[in-house]
Amino acid sequence: MRLWSLHPRFLDAKGIVALWREGLLARAVLRGQTRGYRHHPQLQRFRQQTAPVSTINAYLKVVADEAAERGYCFDRSKLGPARGVTPVACSRGQLDHEWRHLLAKLQQRDPARYRELRTQLPQPHPLFRIVEGPIESWERP
Fold first, then answer.
1. How many CB atoms are located within 10 Å of the residue 28 CB?
2. For 18-52, what is each residue's pLDDT tens digit?
3. pLDDT score of 140 more than 90
4. Which of 3, 64, 82, 109 could form a disulfide with 57 if both were Cys (CB 3.0 to 4.6 A apart)?
5. What is the per-residue pLDDT for 5?
């Protein structure tokens, strides 16, 4: 499971579809509807929020918005309300780590997109507020 801190506009087609699927899985986990993935480290930052399910709903709304801009038809009926959501802190080190990780994936699977993005600066998903710091403790390097 990879719940990117990066803005979903940077993801290629495979990446955004996978993010939607994995985000819905994360939502099910946070709602207590699964047996697996309950201890997945990527969920820690959502669990730490006052309203974890609303927070993942806000996260997924941005993913669905990006998908719609590309002409994809993600099922918005799967989104729930996003009440009481505040920005989530994400370290600069985490964002940079994910940027390198994404570029490595794109170099293999979508070289044209890699060439387009490699000179850009990473921007976070709008849910995240960037703070100084190293890679997050929950990240598996």
1. 16
2. 999 999 999 999 999 988 788 888 899 999 999 99
3. no
4. 82
5. 97
Question: Collapsing DSSP states into helix, strand and coil, what is residue 124?
Answer: strand
Report helix, strand or coil for 6: strand
Closest C-alpha among 1, 4, 27 to residue 136: 4
Region 111-117 average pLDDT: 97
Judge contact between 56 and 46, C-beta under 8 A: yes
Q: CA-to-CA distance for 23 and 16, rounded, in angstroms? A: 10
The answer, yes or no, to whether residue 86 has pLDDT greater than 80, is yes
Give the integer Cα–Cα distance in Å for 115 and 33: 40
- Whole-number percent of the chain with pLDDT over 70: 99
Are 92 and 54 spatial neighbours (Cβ–Cβ below 8 Å)? no
Q: Which residues contact 117 (CB under 8 A, 6 or more apart)?
A: 10, 102, 103, 106
Distance CA 88, CA 90 (A): 6
Question: What angle is formed at CA 3 by the lines to CA 100 and CA 21, rounded to 5 degrees?
Answer: 125
Q: How far apart are the first and last CA of the chain?
A: 14
